[in-house]
Amino acid sequence: MPCVQSLVADFNSLSTIYQYLIGAVCFVVLSVALNVIKQLPPFKSRNSPPLVFHVFPFIGSTISYGMDPYKFMFDNRSKYGDVFTFILLGRRMTVALGPKGNDLILNGKLSQVSAEEAYTHLTTPVFGKDVVYDVPNSVLMEQKKFVKFGLSAENLRMYVDMIADETLKFLNRDNAFSAYQNKDPNGGDFHCFQTMSEITILTASRTLQGKEVRDGLDKSFADMYHDLDGGFTPLNFMFPNLPLPSYKRRDIAQQKMSDFYGDIVRRRRAEGSVDYDMIASLMECKYKDGRALNDREIAHIMIALLMAGQHTSSATSSWALFHLGDKPDVVEALYQEQVEKFGREDGTLNPLTLEEMRECPILNSVIKETLRLHPPIHSIMRKVISDIPVPQSLSAPSEKDSYVIPQGNFVIACPGVSAVDPLIWNDAQEFAPSRWTTQSQEQELAEKDDKGETVDYGFGAISKGTSSPYQPFGAGRHRCIGEQFAYLQLSTIIATFIREMTLETKGGVPPQDYTSMIVLPQPGSRLHYKRRT
Ligand code: HEM
C-alpha cells in the first residue's frame, strides 16, 4: 500500500509541475504575441522614434546590442534612420547617431537630459558620496574645475620623466620582458592589455595620484583597486544592488579606499608637506561659496579619477601597440621621428619632454587614429527628464516631421559610429595615422570644432563640439577633463616602447571585446617584441 500511495503522490506532484510548465509556456507565448502585435504598423506610435523590432519583451535587443554595439547601430541605422529606440533589459534606449545626434545628446539641455540619473547607481557605490553624479550638476562643474586646475602645464611637464622612468623600470623587471632584459635577439611575447593596465596604474599613481598611492600599489592598494573595479561592470550598471559577493567586495573596498585617501589628506595637512600631485592641488581648492573641499570629497574625487583614467588609457595604449605591431612602417616612422627630435650626436636619445612630444606629429597622429577606431566608451548615456522633440531626419530637419523622445527613456550618443562612418571617412576601418598629418577633407571636418565657438560650463572654455564626427573625449558639460593627461601618459608610454623595441602582431589586430564597460582587445591577445640593439 505505501508503494501505491507514493506512486499517487509522485503522479500528483508531476502533474502539478506540468501544470506550472504549461502555464509558464502559455504566459511566454502570450507575452511574445502581444509584444509582436504592438510593433505592427496599426499599433505603432507615429510620434515616437521607430522601435527596433524584437521578439521577446524585456530582453528586446539586449543580446545583439551587447555582442557588437557598432554592428547593431549601423544595421539599425540602415533600417530606421539616425534616431531609433531599442529595448535593453526592459529599458527604452533611444539612439541618435551622427554628428547631429551626438550634439543633440551631449549638448542636451539640463532640463531635458541628466547624466546623474543615468549613472549614479553605478558610480556612487564605487566613487563614494558627494562627488561627480552624487551631487547637482553645478557642483560637478566646480569639481571638474578643481581637477583641471591640478592638471596644470607645470605639473604635466614634471610628469613626463616619471612616466618614462616607471615604464622603463617595468620593462626591466617584469617576467614577460625577460628577453628584453637578457637582450635575447629572438625577442618575446607579452599579454598586451594586462601589461598596459599595470603600466597605466603605476604611472598614474606616480604622477597624479601621489607617492602614497604608488607605494601602496606594492601592498594593499592593488587588492582594494581590484575589488572596487569588480563593481564597475555592465552587470552593476543594469542591476545596482544584487546579493552577490562581488557587490559586497565592492562596498568593503570603497570604504577602505576612501579611508586610505582620507588618511593621506589628514597626514599631509598635519605635516604640511609640499607635493605636485592632484591631492595636493585639491587640498587648496574652494567652492564658490568659500567652502574648502573636505577630506571625504578629496578622497572620492581621487577614486573617480583613478577609475576614469585607468581603463580608458590602458585600452587606448593597448590598441595603439596592436596597430603598431601590425604596421612596421609606422613603427619605423615613429622611431625616426624620435631620432630626429631627440637624437644626440653620440646616437643616443635625449629624454622626452612635454613640449617636444607635442611637436611629434606622427606620435600624436597614432594616438588620434587609435582613438578614432577604438574610442574606449562606445555608448554615452543620459536619462530623459522631460520630453525631447527631435526631427525625424537629423540631417534634413523639418518642423512638421518630428518625433518626441519621452521622459523616462534613456538616450545614447555613440560618437564611435560617426568616427568610422564610411560616408565621412576614406577607408574608414583602416588604421591610417597619416590621415591626420596630411591636409585631408576629413581632418578639416573633424577639427572644425576646434576652430569654432567655445563655451564654458564652469570648468574652463571648451569647443562647442557641435559638428565634429570625431569626439572620443565627448562634448558638452560632461566632456572629459583628462584629455591632456591621457595624451601625455599615452605619448610617453608609446614613445618609450618604440625607443626600446620593435613590435609584431601574430595574426593581426585582435577583435574588439564589448563585455566590459570599455572596448578592450579580445582577452589573452599577445604581442611579440624584439629589443632594439
Ligand atoms: C584615452 C583616455 C580617455 C578617454 C577616451 C576618455 C573619454 C571620456 C569621455 C567620452 C567622457 C564623457 C562621458 C560622458 O559624457 O558621459 C569623459 C569624461 C570624463 N573623463 Fe575621461 N577619458 C579618458 C581619460 C581620462 C582621464 C585620464 C581622466 C582623469 C585624469 C578622465 C576624467 C574624466 C572626467 C572627470 C570626466 C567627466 C565626467 C562628467 O562630467 O560627467 N578621463 N571621458
From TrEMBL:
Main location: membrane
Domain of life: Eukaryota
Any one of the GO CC terms: membrane
This protein's UniProt keywords: Heme, Iron, Membrane, Metal-binding, Monooxygenase, Oxidoreductase, Transmembrane, Transmembrane helix
Residues engaged in binding heme: C480
UniProt-listed Pfam families: p450
InterPro entries xref list: CYP450_sterol_14alpha_dmase, Cyt_P450, Cyt_P450_CS, Cyt_P450_E_grp-IV, Cyt_P450_sf
GO molecular function, one term: heme binding
Subcellular location: Membrane
Transmembrane segments: 17-37, 49-67
Cofactor: heme
Family the UniProt entry places it in: Belongs to the cytochrome P450 family.
Protein name stated in the entry: Uncharacterized protein
Organism: Wallemia hederae
